Amino acid sequence: MLLELRNIRKRFGGVIALRDGNLSVAPGEVHLLVGENGAGKSTLAKIAGGMLVADGGQMLWRGRPVRFERPADAAAHGIAMVHQESVLAPHLSVAENIFLGREPRLPLGMVSRRRMREAAARLIQEHRFPLDPDWRVERLNPAGKQLVEICRAIQHGSSLLIFDEPTSALSESESREVFQIVRSLRERRMGVIYITHRLEELPVLGDRLTILRDGETVYSGSAGELSIRQVIQFMVGREVTTLYERTPQAPGKELLRVEGITREPVLHSVSFSVHAGEIVGLAGLMGAGRTELCRALFGIDPIQAGRIWVEGHEVGLRHPRDAVRAGLALIPEDRQRNGLALGLPLGWNLTAAALDLLSRYGILRRSDERRQCEDYIARLRIRAESPRQLAARLSGGNQQKVVIAKWLLRQARVFLFDEPTRGIDVGAKVEVFQLMDQLARSGAGILMVSSELPELLQVADRILVMRQGRLAAELGRGTTQEEIMRYASLETHSALREAGNFARGETQA
Description:
Elements: E1 3-12, E2 15-25, E3 30-34, H1 41-48, E4 56-61, E5 64-66, H2 71-77, E6 79-82, H3 94-98, H4 113-127, H5 142-155, E7 160-164, H6 172-187, E8 191-195, H7 202-205, E9 208-213, E10 216-222, H8 228-235, E11 254-263, E12 267-275, E13 279-283, H9 290-297, E14 305-310, E15 313-315, H10 320-326, E16 328-331, H11 335-338, H12 346-351, E17 359-360, E18 363-364, H13 366-379, H14 396-410, E19 414-418, H15 426-441, E20 445-449, H16 453-459, E21 462-467, E22 470-476, H17 481-489, H18 493-503
Parallel strand pairs: 3-8, 3-9, 6-7, 7-8, 13-20, 13-21, 16-19, 19-20
Antiparallel strand pairs: 1-2, 1-4, 4-5, 9-10, 11-12, 11-14, 14-15, 17-18, 21-22
C-alpha cells in the first residue's frame, strides 16, 4: 500500500468529525471515498494531505508510520491534494503556477523563465492536456485550473493524488475531462483518492470504495460490489430519530411562482411555486444549485432568463432591495458572514432591514426601535444580556434567531431558509423549527434548503430535489431518504453510459 489510515480520530471543539476513519490506497488504484455531507470525507483527506493533524489513530506511508504536521510534510512524501476550490495564484501563468516555489534557477540564482516554460510545455504535451504554458490561470475554467494543479503535483514527483469532489462545480463535459485525467494517472501507477458525491461515477471510475457515515468507516470493498441502492443505504443507514414533527395544513394562496429561472452554468430553467402556510423543502447534494437558487431569488446574482411572481405580481429582482420590497427574506447559509454584522449590537442587527419602517422624515425613531427590539427578543426567546450585546458574542442558535427576527420585523411574506440549522445544537434546532411552523401558520411561505434529510422529512410539506442546477423531482410527504438520494445522485441512463465510456477511454477528451 502507498497510504494506510487506521482508526483516525479528529475532534473540532465539541464536534467529533472522525471517530474511526479507515482507508488505504495502492499504486495504480483509484479509491473512491463517499458519504453524506458532514460524514468526515474531507477531514480524512485533509489529514492525509497534511492540512489537519489527527487526534488519534495511525498513518502509514509505504508501510512505515508517519505524522504530517503541515502540507509540506505530505508533499515531501509524494502526496498532493487537488482542492475543490482552486488554491492557485490567478495572476500568474500556467507555467509559473506549476513551478511555484520550485522555479528553475540560473547560476546566479535568478529564475530561468525560458527553462520553466519549456519544462511546463513538455509536461503538458506529455499528458496531452489542453493548456498553454503562457495562459493566465485566472482565465481558465474550473477544469483547466484542476489540470494545472495536477501538473504541479506531477512535476513535484507526487505518487498519490487526493481529489476533493473535483466535479461538484463542473459541467458534464468538464467532468468527462477529469475522468480521463484520473484514468491516465491510474495507467501511470499513481494512487488516487477520489472524494465524490456523484454516485453515478462509482461503477465507472473507481477500483475500491470506502463509505463514511457520522465519522466512521462503515464499508470498504470493491467499487463494483454494491449497487447504487446499497451505497445509499450505507450512507444514510443511521436510525432517523424524530427531532420535530410538524402537523401539515392545507396550503393557501400562491405567494411565490418561479418559471424558467436560468443562470448558466449553475441554474437551468428552474420552475416551482410556494403557497401560504407551506414549507417547501429543497434537497440536493453539494453543487446542485440550491444556494445559487436562493441568491438568484433574492436578487444577489442576476438571472439570465425566467420570470418571478410574488403574490400574483410579476417582479424584477435585480438587487436585494428589490426582493426586500417585494416581501422576500433570505436567511443565508453562512449567517456570520452574510446575515449579521458581528461587530454591531444585537439590536442594530435586528432592525437593520426595517429602518425605513422605524423612521419618520428620514429620522430614526429610537423609542420605536428600542421597543421593537425588546419585543422580538422576548418573542423569540433570544438569550442575550441586552440589545446592546454584540452579535458576535451570541451563541449560534441565538444568532440565527436574530437573523429570523430581522425579517419578521420587516414583515416579509416569503422566507428563503438556506441551511437554517447548520452549526446549532439540538435544542436550538427545535426552536428554529417551531418559528418556521409559526411563520407558516401565520400565512407566510417558506422555501427551506437543508442537507439534513431527516429534518426535511420531518418539517417539509413537499420536497423539491435539485441536481446539477435542475429540478430532478418533486416528492410529497411519505417519501424516504433513499428516494431523495436516488433523484439527487443519478444521471439519466444515456449520460451514465457516456460517462462510463469516457472513463474507460472509449471516447476522446
